[in-house]
Amino acid sequence: MIENGIISRYQLWFLVTNFILGGSILILPSSIVTVARQDAWISFILATMIGILFSYILIRLSKRFPNMTIIDISEHLLGKKIGKVIGILYAWFFLHLSVLLISDAANYIGITALRNTPKIVIVILSTLLIYMVIHYGLEVLARSNSFFSYIAAFGFWFSIIFSIPYMDPKKLTPILSEGFMPSIRGAYPVTGFPFAELVVFMMILPFVNKKKHITKVFISGVLVGSFTLIVSIIATILVLNVRPVEMSLFAPFNMVRIINIGEFLTRLEAIISISYMLTVLTKMLVSFYGSIMAIGQVFELTDVRPLIIPLIIITASLHFILNRGIVELIEVAATTWTPYSLFMGVVIPILFLILSYFRKNK
What pTM does this model have? Predict the structure, then answer.
Protein backbone atom coordinates (compact mmCIF):
# COMPACT_ATOMS: atom_id res chain seq x y z
CA MET A 1 0.00 0.00 0.00
CA ILE A 2 1.26 3.50 -0.93
CA GLU A 3 -1.06 5.16 1.59
CA ASN A 4 -0.49 4.40 5.28
CA GLY A 5 -3.14 6.75 6.63
CA ILE A 6 -6.42 5.58 8.11
CA ILE A 7 -9.67 7.53 8.30
CA SER A 8 -12.76 6.97 10.43
CA ARG A 9 -16.19 6.17 9.05
CA TYR A 10 -17.39 9.59 10.19
CA GLN A 11 -14.67 11.27 8.16
CA LEU A 12 -15.75 9.13 5.21
CA TRP A 13 -19.33 10.33 5.72
CA PHE A 14 -18.26 13.98 5.55
CA LEU A 15 -16.16 13.30 2.44
CA VAL A 16 -19.05 11.60 0.63
CA THR A 17 -21.56 14.32 1.58
CA ASN A 18 -19.34 17.17 0.39
CA PHE A 19 -18.34 15.24 -2.72
CA ILE A 20 -22.00 15.03 -3.75
CA LEU A 21 -22.44 18.78 -3.18
CA GLY A 22 -19.16 19.96 -4.71
CA GLY A 23 -19.75 21.54 -8.09
CA SER A 24 -23.36 20.34 -8.18
CA ILE A 25 -25.28 22.75 -5.99
CA LEU A 26 -24.69 25.82 -8.17
CA ILE A 27 -24.19 24.34 -11.65
CA LEU A 28 -26.89 21.65 -11.87
CA PRO A 29 -30.09 23.66 -11.14
CA SER A 30 -30.08 25.68 -14.37
CA SER A 31 -29.30 22.73 -16.66
CA ILE A 32 -31.89 20.45 -15.01
CA VAL A 33 -34.60 23.13 -14.89
CA THR A 34 -34.06 23.68 -18.61
CA VAL A 35 -35.18 20.08 -19.20
CA ALA A 36 -37.64 19.33 -16.39
CA ARG A 37 -38.90 22.87 -15.67
CA GLN A 38 -40.64 23.13 -12.28
CA ASP A 39 -40.37 19.34 -11.87
CA ALA A 40 -36.56 19.50 -11.60
CA TRP A 41 -36.80 18.44 -7.96
CA ILE A 42 -38.43 15.19 -9.10
CA SER A 43 -35.45 14.64 -11.42
CA PHE A 44 -33.12 14.97 -8.44
CA ILE A 45 -35.16 12.47 -6.43
CA LEU A 46 -35.06 9.95 -9.29
CA ALA A 47 -31.33 10.49 -9.74
CA THR A 48 -30.78 10.02 -5.99
CA MET A 49 -32.52 6.65 -6.09
CA ILE A 50 -30.24 5.60 -8.94
CA GLY A 51 -27.24 7.04 -7.11
CA ILE A 52 -28.00 4.89 -4.07
CA LEU A 53 -27.99 1.84 -6.35
CA PHE A 54 -24.61 2.93 -7.75
CA SER A 55 -23.30 3.34 -4.22
CA TYR A 56 -24.47 -0.11 -3.22
CA ILE A 57 -22.64 -1.63 -6.22
CA LEU A 58 -19.41 0.10 -5.21
CA ILE A 59 -19.76 -1.00 -1.59
CA ARG A 60 -20.45 -4.61 -2.64
CA LEU A 61 -17.34 -4.60 -4.81
CA SER A 62 -15.30 -3.05 -2.01
CA LYS A 63 -16.50 -5.67 0.49
CA ARG A 64 -15.49 -8.48 -1.84
CA PHE A 65 -11.99 -6.99 -1.98
CA PRO A 66 -11.78 -5.10 1.33
CA ASN A 67 -8.11 -4.12 1.16
CA MET A 68 -7.96 -3.34 -2.54
CA THR A 69 -8.48 -0.17 -4.53
CA ILE A 70 -10.16 -0.36 -7.91
CA ILE A 71 -6.69 -0.47 -9.48
CA ASP A 72 -5.78 -3.53 -7.39
CA ILE A 73 -9.12 -5.14 -8.24
CA SER A 74 -8.65 -4.64 -11.97
CA GLU A 75 -5.20 -6.25 -11.86
CA HIS A 76 -6.50 -9.08 -9.68
CA LEU A 77 -9.42 -9.89 -11.98
CA LEU A 78 -7.95 -9.10 -15.40
CA GLY A 79 -4.26 -9.72 -14.93
CA LYS A 80 -1.36 -7.30 -14.75
CA LYS A 81 -1.32 -6.01 -18.31
CA ILE A 82 -5.02 -5.38 -18.86
CA GLY A 83 -5.43 -4.31 -15.24
CA LYS A 84 -2.79 -1.61 -15.66
CA VAL A 85 -4.51 -0.32 -18.80
CA ILE A 86 -7.75 -0.01 -16.84
CA GLY A 87 -5.78 1.66 -14.05
CA ILE A 88 -4.43 4.27 -16.45
CA LEU A 89 -7.98 4.96 -17.65
CA TYR A 90 -9.09 5.55 -14.07
CA ALA A 91 -6.08 7.77 -13.36
CA TRP A 92 -7.06 9.90 -16.36
CA PHE A 93 -10.73 9.94 -15.38
CA PHE A 94 -9.94 11.17 -11.86
CA LEU A 95 -7.48 13.72 -13.22
CA HIS A 96 -10.00 14.90 -15.82
CA LEU A 97 -12.56 15.38 -13.05
CA SER A 98 -10.01 17.46 -11.11
CA VAL A 99 -9.48 19.66 -14.17
CA LEU A 100 -13.22 20.24 -14.56
CA LEU A 101 -13.53 21.17 -10.89
CA ILE A 102 -10.65 23.64 -11.07
CA SER A 103 -12.31 25.16 -14.14
CA ASP A 104 -15.59 25.28 -12.25
CA ALA A 105 -14.00 27.07 -9.29
CA ALA A 106 -11.98 29.48 -11.46
CA ASN A 107 -15.00 30.42 -13.58
CA TYR A 108 -17.22 30.88 -10.54
CA ILE A 109 -14.75 33.09 -8.67
CA GLY A 110 -13.93 35.04 -11.84
CA ILE A 111 -17.61 35.78 -12.56
CA THR A 112 -18.96 36.42 -9.06
CA ALA A 113 -16.08 37.87 -7.04
CA LEU A 114 -12.70 38.58 -8.66
CA ARG A 115 -13.78 39.79 -12.08
CA ASN A 116 -10.58 41.68 -12.82
CA THR A 117 -8.26 38.97 -11.50
CA PRO A 118 -6.53 36.84 -14.18
CA LYS A 119 -7.72 33.24 -14.08
CA ILE A 120 -4.15 32.01 -13.85
CA VAL A 121 -3.92 33.58 -10.36
CA ILE A 122 -7.06 31.74 -9.24
CA VAL A 123 -5.80 28.47 -10.72
CA ILE A 124 -2.39 28.83 -9.04
CA LEU A 125 -4.03 29.45 -5.66
CA SER A 126 -6.27 26.40 -6.15
CA THR A 127 -3.34 24.16 -7.06
CA LEU A 128 -1.34 25.44 -4.06
CA LEU A 129 -4.19 24.31 -1.80
CA ILE A 130 -4.15 20.92 -3.50
CA TYR A 131 -0.41 20.58 -2.92
CA MET A 132 -0.60 21.59 0.74
CA VAL A 133 -3.26 18.99 1.54
CA ILE A 134 -2.29 16.07 -0.72
CA HIS A 135 1.35 16.28 0.39
CA TYR A 136 0.31 15.25 3.90
CA GLY A 137 -1.93 12.39 2.79
CA LEU A 138 -5.45 11.11 3.23
CA GLU A 139 -5.71 11.69 6.98
CA VAL A 140 -5.08 15.44 6.66
CA LEU A 141 -7.53 15.61 3.76
CA ALA A 142 -10.24 13.90 5.80
CA ARG A 143 -9.62 15.91 8.99
CA SER A 144 -9.61 19.28 7.24
CA ASN A 145 -12.78 18.36 5.36
CA SER A 146 -14.54 17.35 8.58
CA PHE A 147 -13.76 20.75 10.09
CA PHE A 148 -14.84 22.78 7.06
CA SER A 149 -18.00 20.69 6.62
CA TYR A 150 -19.64 22.53 9.52
CA ILE A 151 -18.90 25.88 7.90
CA ALA A 152 -20.24 24.69 4.53
CA ALA A 153 -23.41 23.26 6.09
CA PHE A 154 -24.03 26.48 8.04
CA GLY A 155 -23.73 28.55 4.87
CA PHE A 156 -26.10 26.38 2.85
CA TRP A 157 -28.83 26.14 5.46
CA PHE A 158 -28.46 29.75 6.58
CA SER A 159 -29.10 30.81 2.97
CA ILE A 160 -32.12 28.50 2.63
CA ILE A 161 -33.73 29.61 5.91
CA PHE A 162 -33.42 33.33 5.17
CA SER A 163 -34.80 32.89 1.66
CA ILE A 164 -38.08 31.44 3.01
CA PRO A 165 -39.89 34.85 3.08
CA TYR A 166 -39.29 35.15 -0.67
CA MET A 167 -40.69 31.72 -1.58
CA ASP A 168 -43.93 31.25 -3.49
CA PRO A 169 -45.29 27.66 -3.57
CA LYS A 170 -47.27 28.42 -6.74
CA LYS A 171 -44.00 28.51 -8.69
CA LEU A 172 -43.69 24.72 -8.31
CA THR A 173 -47.03 24.13 -10.01
CA PRO A 174 -48.34 22.51 -12.08
CA ILE A 175 -46.61 19.27 -11.12
CA LEU A 176 -45.91 16.83 -13.97
CA SER A 177 -47.85 19.01 -16.40
CA GLU A 178 -45.97 17.46 -19.34
CA GLY A 179 -45.89 13.94 -17.93
CA PHE A 180 -43.05 12.02 -16.34
CA MET A 181 -40.60 12.01 -19.26
CA PRO A 182 -39.12 15.50 -18.70
CA SER A 183 -38.29 14.51 -15.12
CA ILE A 184 -36.62 11.31 -16.34
CA ARG A 185 -34.60 13.23 -18.93
CA GLY A 186 -33.62 15.72 -16.25
CA ALA A 187 -32.39 12.92 -13.98
CA TYR A 188 -30.02 11.52 -16.62
CA PRO A 189 -27.17 14.08 -16.32
CA VAL A 190 -27.36 13.96 -12.51
CA THR A 191 -26.60 10.23 -12.57
CA GLY A 192 -23.27 11.00 -14.20
CA PHE A 193 -22.54 14.20 -12.28
CA PRO A 194 -22.11 13.58 -9.37
CA PHE A 195 -23.30 10.01 -8.64
CA ALA A 196 -21.20 7.92 -11.06
CA GLU A 197 -18.13 9.90 -9.99
CA LEU A 198 -18.38 8.25 -6.56
CA VAL A 199 -16.20 5.51 -8.03
CA VAL A 200 -13.22 7.62 -6.91
CA PHE A 201 -13.99 6.46 -3.36
CA MET A 202 -12.81 3.01 -4.42
CA MET A 203 -9.36 4.58 -3.91
CA ILE A 204 -10.29 5.54 -0.33
CA LEU A 205 -12.50 2.76 1.06
CA PRO A 206 -9.57 0.38 1.79
CA PHE A 207 -8.27 2.97 4.28
CA VAL A 208 -11.42 3.26 6.41
CA ASN A 209 -10.64 1.79 9.82
CA LYS A 210 -13.97 0.19 10.78
CA LYS A 211 -15.67 -1.32 7.75
CA LYS A 212 -18.54 -3.04 9.59
CA HIS A 213 -21.05 -0.23 9.02
CA ILE A 214 -19.49 1.17 5.86
CA THR A 215 -22.61 0.57 3.73
CA LYS A 216 -24.81 2.58 6.08
CA VAL A 217 -22.21 5.35 6.40
CA PHE A 218 -21.58 5.68 2.66
CA ILE A 219 -25.23 5.61 1.59
CA SER A 220 -26.32 7.99 4.36
CA GLY A 221 -23.65 10.42 3.14
CA VAL A 222 -25.08 10.16 -0.37
CA LEU A 223 -28.59 10.72 0.99
CA VAL A 224 -27.68 13.81 3.03
CA GLY A 225 -25.78 15.37 0.13
CA SER A 226 -28.65 14.58 -2.23
CA PHE A 227 -31.25 15.93 0.21
CA THR A 228 -29.34 19.22 0.35
CA LEU A 229 -29.32 19.37 -3.45
CA ILE A 230 -33.07 18.69 -3.61
CA VAL A 231 -33.84 21.38 -1.01
CA SER A 232 -31.58 23.79 -2.89
CA ILE A 233 -33.32 23.26 -6.24
CA ILE A 234 -36.78 23.58 -4.65
CA ALA A 235 -35.79 26.77 -2.83
CA THR A 236 -34.25 28.24 -5.98
CA ILE A 237 -37.42 27.65 -8.03
CA LEU A 238 -39.69 28.91 -5.23
CA VAL A 239 -37.74 32.16 -5.00
CA LEU A 240 -36.69 32.89 -8.59
CA ASN A 241 -39.24 30.95 -10.69
CA VAL A 242 -38.46 28.62 -13.58
CA ARG A 243 -37.38 31.05 -16.29
CA PRO A 244 -34.82 33.01 -14.21
CA VAL A 245 -33.31 29.73 -12.94
CA GLU A 246 -33.10 28.42 -16.49
CA MET A 247 -31.32 31.58 -17.67
CA SER A 248 -28.97 31.83 -14.68
CA LEU A 249 -25.43 30.44 -14.60
CA PHE A 250 -25.45 30.14 -10.80
CA ALA A 251 -29.10 30.15 -9.74
CA PRO A 252 -28.64 29.58 -5.95
CA PHE A 253 -26.13 32.45 -5.89
CA ASN A 254 -28.68 34.74 -7.53
CA MET A 255 -31.35 33.52 -5.11
CA VAL A 256 -29.27 34.55 -2.10
CA ARG A 257 -28.49 37.96 -3.60
CA ILE A 258 -32.11 39.11 -3.29
CA ILE A 259 -32.30 38.44 0.46
CA ASN A 260 -32.85 41.72 2.28
CA ILE A 261 -34.29 41.45 5.78
CA GLY A 262 -34.80 44.74 7.58
CA GLU A 263 -31.98 46.39 5.60
CA PHE A 264 -29.71 44.46 7.95
CA LEU A 265 -29.25 41.02 6.40
CA THR A 266 -28.20 41.81 2.85
CA ARG A 267 -25.49 40.77 0.40
CA LEU A 268 -25.41 37.23 1.76
CA GLU A 269 -23.97 35.74 -1.43
CA ALA A 270 -20.54 35.63 0.21
CA ILE A 271 -21.89 33.00 2.62
CA ILE A 272 -23.12 30.67 -0.13
CA SER A 273 -19.90 31.29 -2.07
CA ILE A 274 -17.72 30.17 0.85
CA SER A 275 -19.84 27.05 1.35
CA TYR A 276 -19.74 26.28 -2.36
CA MET A 277 -15.97 26.70 -2.62
CA LEU A 278 -15.35 24.48 0.41
CA THR A 279 -17.37 21.62 -1.11
CA VAL A 280 -15.73 22.08 -4.52
CA LEU A 281 -12.34 22.02 -2.82
CA THR A 282 -13.21 18.73 -1.12
CA LYS A 283 -14.29 17.13 -4.39
CA MET A 284 -11.21 18.51 -6.13
CA LEU A 285 -8.92 17.06 -3.45
CA VAL A 286 -10.61 13.65 -3.46
CA SER A 287 -10.40 13.46 -7.27
CA PHE A 288 -6.75 14.54 -7.36
CA TYR A 289 -5.93 12.11 -4.57
CA GLY A 290 -7.60 9.31 -6.54
CA SER A 291 -5.61 10.20 -9.64
CA ILE A 292 -2.22 10.34 -7.96
CA MET A 293 -2.88 7.12 -6.06
CA ALA A 294 -3.98 5.38 -9.26
CA ILE A 295 -0.78 6.44 -11.03
CA GLY A 296 1.31 5.30 -8.07
CA GLN A 297 -0.33 1.87 -8.03
CA VAL A 298 -0.16 1.37 -11.80
CA PHE A 299 3.58 2.06 -11.82
CA GLU A 300 4.13 0.35 -8.45
CA LEU A 301 5.66 3.38 -6.75
CA THR A 302 6.46 3.37 -3.05
CA ASP A 303 5.97 7.13 -2.62
CA VAL A 304 3.66 9.31 -4.70
CA ARG A 305 4.68 12.66 -3.23
CA PRO A 306 7.25 13.39 -5.98
CA LEU A 307 4.36 13.16 -8.45
CA ILE A 308 2.30 15.91 -6.82
CA ILE A 309 3.96 18.95 -8.39
CA PRO A 310 4.23 17.49 -11.94
CA LEU A 311 0.60 16.37 -11.79
CA ILE A 312 -0.50 19.78 -10.50
CA ILE A 313 1.29 21.43 -13.44
CA ILE A 314 -0.45 19.04 -15.85
CA THR A 315 -3.82 19.72 -14.20
CA ALA A 316 -3.40 23.50 -14.43
CA SER A 317 -2.24 23.25 -18.05
CA LEU A 318 -5.20 21.06 -18.98
CA HIS A 319 -7.51 23.65 -17.45
CA PHE A 320 -6.33 26.27 -19.94
CA ILE A 321 -6.39 23.77 -22.82
CA LEU A 322 -9.82 22.27 -22.15
CA ASN A 323 -11.68 25.16 -20.51
CA ARG A 324 -13.88 27.19 -22.86
CA GLY A 325 -15.87 29.07 -20.25
CA ILE A 326 -18.63 28.34 -17.79
CA VAL A 327 -21.38 27.94 -20.43
CA GLU A 328 -19.50 25.15 -22.18
CA LEU A 329 -18.59 23.61 -18.82
CA ILE A 330 -22.27 23.39 -17.85
CA GLU A 331 -23.12 21.94 -21.27
CA VAL A 332 -20.40 19.30 -20.96
CA ALA A 333 -21.56 18.37 -17.45
CA ALA A 334 -25.13 17.94 -18.71
CA THR A 335 -24.33 16.03 -21.91
CA THR A 336 -21.05 14.37 -22.93
CA TRP A 337 -19.73 13.89 -19.40
CA THR A 338 -22.65 11.66 -18.40
CA PRO A 339 -22.01 8.58 -20.62
CA TYR A 340 -18.27 8.89 -19.99
CA SER A 341 -18.80 9.04 -16.23
CA LEU A 342 -21.38 6.23 -16.24
CA PHE A 343 -19.00 3.95 -18.12
CA MET A 344 -16.11 4.54 -15.72
CA GLY A 345 -18.20 4.78 -12.56
CA VAL A 346 -20.91 2.19 -13.12
CA VAL A 347 -20.35 -0.12 -16.10
CA ILE A 348 -16.80 -1.18 -15.22
CA PRO A 349 -17.54 -1.73 -11.48
CA ILE A 350 -20.59 -3.84 -12.40
CA LEU A 351 -18.46 -5.93 -14.76
CA PHE A 352 -15.86 -6.35 -12.01
CA LEU A 353 -18.54 -7.41 -9.54
CA ILE A 354 -20.00 -9.97 -11.96
CA LEU A 355 -16.55 -11.26 -12.83
CA SER A 356 -15.66 -11.63 -9.14
CA TYR A 357 -18.69 -13.90 -8.55
CA PHE A 358 -17.99 -15.83 -11.74
CA ARG A 359 -14.37 -16.49 -10.78
CA LYS A 360 -15.37 -17.51 -7.26
CA ASN A 361 -17.96 -20.00 -8.55
CA LYS A 362 -15.48 -21.31 -11.08
Answer: 0.94
